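Data card: per-record layout.
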Amino acid sequence: MSEPARSGPLSGLLVADFSRVLAGPYCTMLLADLGADVIKVESPGGDDTRSWMPPVTKDGVSTYFLAINRNKRSVALDLKDDGDRALAQELARRADVFVQNFKPGGLARFGLDYDTVSAGNPSIIYASISGFGSGGGKDLPGYDLMVQAMSGLMSLTGDPEGPPYRAGISAFDVIAGLHTTIAILAALNHRNATGEGQHLDASLMASAMSGMVNQTSAYAAGGDHAVDRDHAIAGRARGGRRRGRSGRRRRCRPLREGGGNKGRGDERNQARGNPRREMCEEHSWPQYS
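The structure for this 289-residue chain is written out next.
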């Protein structure tokens, strides 16, 4: 990649990007967009997404790779080679921020783990991204699809009468990248005040729990019965239909001003004067059109 002219609120910051595929590169791309000088370290074979095609540009470049690696410089280093490994370590020594999404502990054999890097660069902001963190789940593969299934997101997606579906994008990779970016910005602010660097540990599963918001809260605070009820509400919202007491499917009808449907809650909702609310014939659960 050619070196871009850097400007923006993070101008002057050097980011060593040892991440690959999506979550890490998405994070470092956002830092680059804000003006940081991001040096992307790739293996001699290149980032995995360089070969994820089609689609491609007219020049034959993977559009997936381009989508998450703009505004970066790139260098190919073989970390098993002594000379290349020394260059990688020197980059880490100079960097303000270090981002990696290797399997937890995977960079230790190259002298690029947090303890080794921070010994030579105490003010480094070192961000690690994995599927399940560095604790009990550290050995699990960190695939977005696994996290979508294990978090329960797939049970909320698709036809409520059908099988679970994955989201159309790697949603938790993206959210984890966003969360890591936010954490890095907070750590930089802390370093400006104290001079201290720190190790940030992000995971797709933690981001999934945060990103699923009310569904996570229902499970954590309300228990399984609350989740079942919330899933039922979500299913009705997706399908636009609900089952009556007889088990027949009933379609919701709009509640109109001055008239309305013959269902419970009609008077209450008419009194609120909101003609855009919908009320199912046999339920008091509102929907917004």
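Known properties of this structure: The chain has ten helices and eleven strands. The first strand starts at residue 14 and ends at 18.

See the next section for split statistics.
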